[in-house]
Amino acid sequence: MSRDEELLARVALTWLTEPGTWSVHRLVDRLGPAGALDLLLDGGAPEESLRATVAARSRQGDARAVAADALARAERLGARVVAPRDEEWPVRVGDLRRLVLKGGDRRVDRETAPPLCFWVRGAWPLNEAFDRAVAVVGARAATPYGLHVATEIGYGLADRDWTVVSGGAFGIDAAAHRGALNAGGLTVAVLACGVDRPYPMGNAALFDRIAETGLLISEWMPGADPLRPRFLIRNRVIAAATAGTVLVEAAARSGATQTVNRALAIGRRAMVVPGPVTSAMSVGAHEMLREQPSARLVTGVPHVLEEVGRIGADLAPPARAPQQPRDLLDDDATLVLESIPRRGAVGVDRLAARAGVDVRTALRKLSLLEELGMVRRRDDGYALATGGARSPGTAS
Amino acid sequence: MSRDEELLARVALTWLTEPGTWSVHRLVDRLGPAGALDLLLDGGAPEESLRATVAARSRQGDARAVAADALARAERLGARVVAPRDEEWPVRVGDLRRLVLKGGDRRVDRETAPPLCFWVRGAWPLNEAFDRAVAVVGARAATPYGLHVATEIGYGLADRDWTVVSGGAFGIDAAAHRGALNAGGLTVAVLACGVDRPYPMGNAALFDRIAETGLLISEWMPGADPLRPRFLIRNRVIAAATAGTVLVEAAARSGATQTVNRALAIGRRAMVVPGPVTSAMSVGAHEMLREQPSARLVTGVPHVLEEVGRIGADLAPPARAPQQPRDLLDDDATLVLESIPRRGAVGVDRLAARAGVDVRTALRKLSLLEELGMVRRRDDGYALATGGARSPGTAS
C-alpha cells in the first residue's frame, strides 16, 4: 500500500471512530489501515457500539472523501500528516499500548490506544522535537504563583534545550509555552481540535508564535471542534510523547492530574510542584503527592532535569550530537540564518537589514547557507530549508 | 533509695553532664542515679571527655548542693521535678534508647539518651498531657503564610483534644502554641533553659498563658541559660514525646528539620506542610519531602489526624475513656467547675458571679464537686483538685 493510501485510511479511521479507540487500533494491527477501514465501512466492527458510531458518521459523509478533503485542506494550510511509518513519527507514543487504567468506566479511561496519525503545523520533525521533551500541565484558572512557576519552568527547560510540551490551554499551559518561547526554545502544543483553528481563541497570538518556531499538533483533522471529551483523550499523548510530566497547580480531580496519572501508568516521570496549602489551586497537586508514591515533588528546573535526565541517561544516547552544521557557521552566517523567518520567505534587502549586515555580505552568506542545505532560494526570496540551525530538522 | 534521694541524684547528674549524655545514661541503668553520681564525682567516668566535664563543673560547685538548691528554688516557683519512676513520667521518651543517627559527628547527633528528669511548670500530669500529643515545629523567621498555617493546625489539633507540643520559639512554634491556646486547648512548651526564665523573653506573655493552662517543661534546672546547643539536644524530646511531628516552614538544613529526622528515626510520624516553591522558608520542608520517603505531605489537621490517629489505633487503646466524672455533671456544676481558675483559688462570691449562678447554687455544686474529688476547699477559697474536668489530671 502506498504511503498516501495508508495516510488516507488512517485519517478516515480517525474521523470515523475518534482517536484512542482500542478495537480500531487492534484492527489496524491485524489488517492494516485500509483493510481496517474497509471492514468498518462494511459494518464489520467487532463491537455493537463501534458499529453504531461508524454508521452514524457514515451518514454524514463518505469517510475516504472526508479524509481526502481534509488532506487537501491541510496542504493549503501548510500542515502535514505524520503516520507511524514516517521517519519523524514520535515512537514514544507507542508506549500507550501498555496503558491500562484501573477502574476505567469512562470512555476516556478505556480508549487510550496510540494515535493513528498526527496533523502537524510547524517545521520541526516530530521525532526531533520530542527527543528531549517534558510536559508542563496544570490549571486553567491558575494563580499568579502558578503562572510564575510554570513560566520559569518553561523558560528553564527550553533554555537547557528541552522541548516544552503542553496543551495550549489558558493558565499553566499557556505560561509554560510562553516561558519556552521567551527562552527562544522549542515548544509543542498538543491540541484537541484542528491545527487550523487552535482552541482557545484567546490564545490565538500564542498559537501563531508556537506555529512559527515550534509545533502545533493534533490527532483531529483540520476543522475539528474542541469537544470536551477530546481534551482528556488528547492528554494521553502529552503524557506518552514526553519523558515526564510536571504538574503545576491543579484543583481537586482535574484534567491535569489525569495526564500525570497516564504518565505514571506508562512509566514516565511524574513531577509535581507544591504550593500554599491555603490555595485551592494546589489541592490537586498535593493530593497527587500524597496518593502517588512515585510522583516526585519538584521545586524547579534542576529537580525536573534530575528526573528526566536520569531517564535520558538510562534509555537514550546523548540526545544531541555535539557537532552540527550550525557549529560550522561564522557569526555573520549565523546572523543571516537566524534572520530568516521560520515560515515564509524574505527578500535579501530586508534580510540584510534584519541581520545587521550589508547586502553583499548577506548574499555571500546566503550562498554558503544554500550550499549547506540550510536555506533555499524561492521566487519570493530566501526561506529556511527543512534543515537549519536553531530551526527544524537537520535530521529530515 | 528514696524518691527524694533519687531525684536529687538525677538533677545533680543533669547539671554535671548535660542531658542526653549516653555514657551517663548507661551508668544510671547499671548503678542507679545515686551510684552513677558517686562514680562520676569520684572521677570514675568511663570516658576522658566526660571526666573532664565533671571535673570542670565540680569546680563550680558541689553537684548535690547545687541540685538541692535548685529543688528548693523550684518549690518556691511552684515547679516540680518528674522522674521515670513517677506515675506521670511520659514513657514515650524512653524510645530515645533506640535513636541512632547516621553520620553523627556533632555532639547533638551523638548525645541522644533519654532525659533523666523533667522540670515542670503547670498542673497537668505529663503522661496525660502527652497521651495524645503532636509536635508542631518550624522556622523562627516564619512568613505570614507559615504563621497562618501553624496557628490553624495548633487550633485544630487542640480543638480535637490533642496536645500541641512545640519549643516556645518565635515564629512557627509560638503560632502553634497560640493556636492551641485560642482553642482553649492544652499546649506544652519544651524548653532548652530553666522553666523559671523561659526563652525568648519576647514570648513572656505567651509563656505565662501556657504555664496557666498547659505546661512548660525542661530538662535543665531553673536558672539554666538557653545555650545554643541545648536547643538541638532539646529537640529529641519534642520528637520522642509526641505521636508525630508536623513541620511548617523551614529553611534549608534547619533545627526544625532535625526534629523531624529524630521523629522518623524512632518511628514517629513525620508530617510536612508544603509551601510556595518561591519561598526560602519552605526549602527545608520541600527537601524533607524529597529526601525522606516516610515523611508525609499534610495540608491541614485532617491529614495530621489521619497520620497520628493511625498510630493511636495501632498502638494504644482509645485515648480517652468516654465516661468521665465530668460527664456526670449537670450544667450548673459544669459552669461552676469551669469557672475555677487553672491555678490558685477563688472565693465563692466571685466564683458564683463568674459562673452566672447564685451563691446558694454555687455552694451546692461546689460541695458536689468536692465530693467527686474535683475541687478542694482551701483557706483562700476553692481550687481545682489535681483532677477536674477540662483541667489537669483525672488520672493522678
What does this structure look like?
Two copies of one chain form a homodimer. Chain A has three domains: 3-69, no CATH class; 108-315, Rossmann fold (3-Layer(aba) Sandwich); 325-384, Winged helix-like DNA-binding domain superfamily/Winged helix DNA-binding domain (Arc Repressor Mutant, subunit A). Chain A is 47% helix and 12% strand. The first copy, chain A, has helices at 3-17, 22-41, 48-60, 63-77, 107-110, 126-129, 144-159, 172-182, 204-213, 228-241, 255-265, 283-291, 301-315, 331-338, 348-355, 359-371, and strands at 80-82, 118-121, 133-138, 163-166, 187-191, 215-218, 244-248, 269-273, 296-297, 375-378, 381-384. A nine-stranded mixed beta sheet of chain A has the order 1-2-6-5-4-3-7-8-9, sandwiched between helices. In chain A, strands 10-11 form a two-stranded antiparallel sheet. Chain A starts with a helix and ends in a 12-residue tail after the last strand. The interface between A and B is medium-sized, with 20 and 20 residues. Chains A, B: Residues 108-308 form the Smf/DprA SLOG domain.
Features:
homodimer, 396 residues, alpha/beta, Rossmann fold, Arc Repressor Mutant, subunit A, 9-stranded mixed sheet, two-stranded antiparallel sheet, 16 helices, WH_DNA-bd_sf (chains A, B), DNA processing protein (chains A, B), DrpA_SLOG (chains A, B)
Short description:
Chains A, B: This is DNA processing protein. Chain A has 396 residues and is an alpha/beta fold. Chain A has 16 helices and eleven strands.
